[in-house]
Request: fold
Amino acid sequence: MAKPSRSQKNSRTPQVKKTQPKMKKNRHIGLKIMIAIVGFLCVALLSGIGIFFYYVKDAPDLSEKKLDATVSSKLFDIDGNEFEDLGAEKREKIAADKIPQELDDAIVSVEDRRFFKHNGVDPVRILGSALHNITNKGGLQGGSTLTQQLVKLSFFSTKASDQTLRRKAQEAWLAIQLEKKYSKQEVLTYYINKVYMANGLYGMETAAESYFGKELQHLSIAQTALLAGMPQAPNSYDPYKHPEAAKERRDTVLYTMLKNKKISQENYDTATKEPIDQGLLPLQTDNQERKVADNYVKEVIAQVESKTGKNVYTDGLDIYTNLDTDAQNKLYSIVNGDEYVQYPDKDLQVAATLVDSKTGRVTAQIGGRNIADDVYLGMNRAVNTNRDFGSTVKPITDYGPMFEYEQKSTGTMIDDAPYFYPGTKNEVKNWDLTYQGRITYRKALYDSRNVPAVKVFNEVGAENAAKFLKNLGIQYKDIQQSNAISSNTETQDGTKYGISTEKMAAAYAAFANGGTYNEPLYINKIKYQDGSEQTFENKGEKAMEPYTAYMITDILKDVILKGTGTYAQIPNLFQAGKTGTSNYTDDELAKIPHLGSISPDVMFTGYTPHYSLSIWTGYDKRMTPITDASSNIAQEVYRELMSYVSENVPNDDWVMPDDVIRSRNELYVKGSSAVPTQPSYSSQSSYYNNNTSYNQYTAPSSSAQVQPSVPESSTVAPTPTPSSSSEVTPTPTPTPTPSSSSAAPEPSEPSSSQTPPPPEESVTPPSSN
Reply:
């Protein structure tokens, strides 16, 4: 091979020299990047350490008292008296030497496998959880150790939004300090005695004795695994309410024990086959007074969690509620005894909600009769929306929107005549299967005629009706013509759609206070463990014009005076209200042996300037009917409670607003086209008559011999095929109630060429028709 010439060598030499600086330059850049990365990591590490210690400097001090104590919440009534302590008295502590090894194994296996290897914080667990959360689309996995969970339960809120970086740093710091001070077995013992176990129970020993009637050391492996798995989500894994979820969680615990070689395959197979309710005892309550306000407490808990995100069982709150204990006790006595109301049997159910008309505060509530002693936070029928509220919807769905948006008068004439739902062959029927011809809006509403109600609904329009209802906290997913006389709805979405006693009491309260809607409010103030406080009050939203509220109220006074609600009469009390009754379809009636009128639901909602009270009655089995003999119980319950709560408040009448004119006993919106051109106006209620006294009359009592009335009814076939409804005016012993309308014959609406006579000044007792 020929040697390269000098010129060839010279030509290659410069090329080698040119590449050397580039390689050195690349090495320098790489080195600089590495130094920068290391420097950044060092700065980040130092910053992280600095931030960590900055956060932990404010961490609370370790306190054995807090480690040992429950963190249940206390509930106080409107006068500041404690009436419930959620779990503080339902706790049995267990000593470390009494805890069975199987329970230790179960807890450690499912909650913290490396519990005996870490010092309170487990970096391996944290990294593993982070990797799992990045690579898996399923539920998030936490990195907290058992020690950290104990710290959280003892010193911090369990609210998800409170899990800040500061909080996590303090939690980790306290966990490390805790394990320096206490042994692993002591930490486990604190945890076992601290955790919430559903149904107002704290600590696993308490749960063992309450659920199985045994001490922990005498439970089966399956029962032990059930208790070990509950603290992660105690209410969700409650074996009484959610047995399937409880079994799934129990079996998960057993599987982790098998994987950790704490039980044999034979033990695992036997335990997983054990029924979840094997050995489970009926819950016993140690506070008989608790069930008086059980439904109210349930709503308090729900409202606290929805408004604050706090957990009443683990965050140690002092909750000041709006409960009027005296009113609640009275309501409980009325509903559960025979002293005030004669009930047909033990199965008839009653739900009721009492609301402060001005503020929306719920002062009393009950969700059922004859509730078993072992029921804890049971079904609350007072907030359920799965029953039909019948004609009580007419003021809020039909006539309220008409007065609000069309400014018609109470004397507007309407034809009560044969009528079909537009676009259908379904006839609208009245309670007596007859028609009264031309009548006023006033009479149509106080006598609860269905044909006029549907006509008014269609005239005002579904859109306006829905808007008016929404202003009162009531919605339907799709409002139908049948909702003119019924609250039936195929879609409920929990309690979002439809009507309950809670919703109805709040809606009628807007009539009572002149047009302002207030959300039903159970809580007044909360004091947190850190000493801070949070108050809760309604700002109120305008739901309607004052003239609408007054005109509806004026008519609903007549409902009690001479309409369908005479059993609700309370002597000398200014009040207004509306009856409501649903009924069965023809197919359902054919399946129920009966004589006379029967109904699945009977309601009454009434109010004063101070209180709004809604009552529902019916059977849980809808096909068990309310008969004529018990069709007035809703009114009677209302009468007894409203009489009681009205004793210590002024008996105020409603003041007619400036934008309302009274002429010939009918009401007009000032400036509207309906106002007569030459009216004889009055701003004074016709109740005020110097020659009239009501002291001579006596209220109907539960023992009075009153002929039962045929219940009103507003049958609605499943949407969109509405059917007839019916309603009958009861005929009790006449007992007048103060009213701003007279009982004179209903006049025709004055024309522009007529001069109406002065308003009537006499008050006629209830009609016997």
Observations:
- The chain is about 35% helix and 10% strand.
